[in-house]
Amino acid sequence: MFNIALLIAKKDLTIILGRSAGLCQALLLGLLLIFLFSLSLETGQKLSPHAAATMFWLASVFCQVLIFQMLYTNEEQNSARVGLQTLPCQIQAIWLGKFFAGFVLLLLSQLLFIPALFIFLSQHIGLHYGYSLLGIFLTDIGICTCGSLLGALCVGQSGKESLLSIIIFPLLIPLLLSAISLSSVGLLDFENSFYDIAQIQQWLGIAFAFDMMFCAASLILFPFLYRGE
């Protein structure tokens, strides 16, 4: 199953990176959100780390929605969905392959969003950036897990594509709250440069628990959603 998942991910990455237009649209949307928010700041004004982290994750989640719409629309446009269902493996391999592809694309997108925080929102690296990087990794796993699961539900018929953004945001609220807090501790706050390590570990625990819960739910529910049962 793992080998087939990697082949599916390779296929999707080749298609999306080869076309590039859809990925550029997702990247531009995220960068545009950060840039437009920077226009609300007065000259010399510094945005708080918490607000900057919020903008980063809003850009990431909107980008993720477009990424998983592209990943699942590929099969719908080419009538390849039935072909994937007939692969000689467990159908969860499709979910895992989409997860791998979406995770890579989201990380590539965030490599542009993070510098944008420092350029447009005047942020600086703080003392606990290691916790922020770990938080980004855990949060990306969580939102890609949800995206890979719900993407199968929100394609296939006209008008269903918009359901992904409607369904996924309420589910991601607990994860995003911990992600924003973890990301903000990695940005320099001159008023409070020291954070409670125990509280940081609690946020990491929330993110890890969310990942485990939705990974288990995805393995159980994905076959029913993808087959439309």
Describe the structure.
This protein is mostly helical and 229 residues long. Helix content is 76%, strand content 0%. It has helices at residues 2-19, 21-38, 49-77, 81-85, 92-120, 129-151, 163-184, 197-227. α5 (92-120) packs across α6. The longest helix is centred in the last third of the chain and has 31 residues, at 197-227. The mean pLDDT is 84.
Describe this protein with a few key phrases.
mainly alpha
Kindly summarize this structure in a few lines.
With 229 residues, the protein is an all-alpha fold.
Number of continuous helical runs: 8
Helicity level: over 70%
Spatial gap, N to C terminus:
22 Å
Number of strands: 0
Gyration radius, to the nearest Å? Answer: 18 Å
Order of helices and strands: HHHHHHHH
Sheet-strand content, in percent, reads under 5%
Average pLDDT metric: 84
- Which spans have pLDDT < 50 for at least 5 consecutive residues? none
Q: Structural class of the helices, strands and pairings?
A: mainly alpha
Largest sheet: none
Shape: globular
